[in-house]
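Example record for the data management plan.
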Amino acid sequence: MITAIFDLDGTLADTICDLGDAVNYGLEKLGFPTHDYESYKKMVGNGVKKLCRRALPEDKKEKTEELLGLFREYYNVHYLDKTCLYDGMKETLEKLSDSGVVLAVATNKPEDVAREIVMELLPDTDFVKVLGGVDYRPSKPDSAILIEIFAALPDVENRVYMIGDSNVDVQTAKNAGIESIGCAWGFRGRAELEAEGADFIAEKPADIADIILK
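Corresponding structural encoding:
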């Protein structure tokens, strides 16, 4: 049996505009400078609290919790304003599913919002688990989120891939002892994925199916 575990932001969907708009909303409320979307691509990946901390001026990091509250106030309403699946992703997931591959999502995005986004964008895709950031479980690159997914898999030999766009996803795969597929179209790009030692690099979503089903 093969299992494909997907990151969400920068892997399944382009979420950067809604994330950036939510942080900028909070920054403006607090009277701090905002950032462009390209800058946010380097800040995401470790959960929303670290995203907010990174967005603040160096001498204002103590405002992290306040900014996080404002971020959530905005993002919980606007998380699907501009977010969309990457071209070819839906078809790739269908091909994998039709081939018997078990699908799951492991993201540092808050779990409730992650599930809403997956449900809205991929209502017909069957995921064995959609897990995100929660207080009781360490964030990626800790392997706890993958271990929870492993527990939901049938008790047969599994070949498992972690599929994501950043060094965090590659590190998570290494920590769990599974192979990684880096998504070059995501927020961080091929160079970071290669430097981190991704086992495979996908240039487009269709490449994921080619790698897994080879």
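Summary line stored alongside the record: The mean pLDDT is 96.
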